[in-house]
Amino acid sequence: xxxxxxxxxxxxxxxxxxxxxxxxxxxxxxxxxxxxxxxxxxxxxxxxxxxxxxxxxxxxxxxxxxxxxxxxxxxxxxxxxxxxxxxxxxxxxxxxxxxxxxxxxxxxxxxxxxxxxxxxxxxxxxxxxxxxxxxxxxxxxxxxxxxxxxxxxxxxxxxxxxxxxxxxxxxxxxxxxxxxxxxxxxxxxxxxxxxxxxxxxxxxxxxxxxxxxxxxxxxxxxxxxxxxxxxxxxxxxxxxxxxxxxxxxxxxxxxxxxxxxxxxxxxxxxxxxxxxxxxxxxxxxxxxxxxxxxxxxxxxxxxxxxxxxxxxxxxxxxxxxxxxxxxxxxxxxxxxxxxxxxxxxxxxxxxxxxxxxxxxxxxxxxxx
Length: 368
Fold this sequence. Notes:
- By secondary structure, this protein is an alpha+beta fold.
- Helix content is 39%, strand content 15%.
- The protein is built from 11 helices and 12 strands.
- A 5-stranded mixed beta sheet has the order 1-5-6-8-3. Strands 2, 4, 9 and 10 form a 4-stranded antiparallel beta sheet that branches.
- Mean pLDDT is 89; it is low at 323-327.
């Protein structure tokens, strides 16, 4: 068994599942430290010998990866503790410095999204016909309605997208599907993103890949996993005014907004039960505004993303009334399955999600 296969086998044995649930009423900084310590202990016990003590790192330095993991964890904990002490400026400075060291000094951790990648965005029905601009980010003159959320800073607009309409539906709390409008978005240029990824999806991507490149991808994942932990803790008190689980994600959004080398963030949902999905990734994306104005939209985002005219399930049923009308074939089953009722798996392409995506994929996109 090769060293790469050894590393991969040991990863599979560890439970890296996200989102992470809190139990009891632990003091959040202590809870986060426990999670970091558990991860570091696992790494030292199971992976140190196969990584730091085996891979010939440049300069022959010892303990290369574990030292980066520990340094990153320490910086994130210092950020949280500064925030809890009311030192918000110091917390932001510590976080930015920690991110700079990892992303631009230590490892090449940014991922690239190809041109014309498809995304989706939803909006609740307001008893009016929506236009493209209604499904873009909140206009600057309406920034007062931007509320706090995991990756949302009050008053700061951003473009939130899902990789499929099902993801959007879950993010709306499984809102009545017929009362949602959807648009498909595409990017007009390559995008550089920070990626918070489930370990199952990483391992799937590594299948059949180049072993040396696979090792580099795994090492990057190891180093960044403290950030994954800090951004993937489920909120313990959903109706509280202060949610400590949002501290690192919101600082991360601000960091991306100020960095010209990073366009956005990809992250898993804390609402989705991934055990019910097959070949459906279920990721969200956030792209913060890069320019600010008194009114309108971010000039950078409006050039970067084109979208379809919004539509809804009800509109599609009106337009494509099957009675007495011949239609071209619908979506072909592509292997994706979803379990919306316990024990009953459905082909995603035949669900309402698949059907509306099929319609949107066959429609043109344009600027807002």
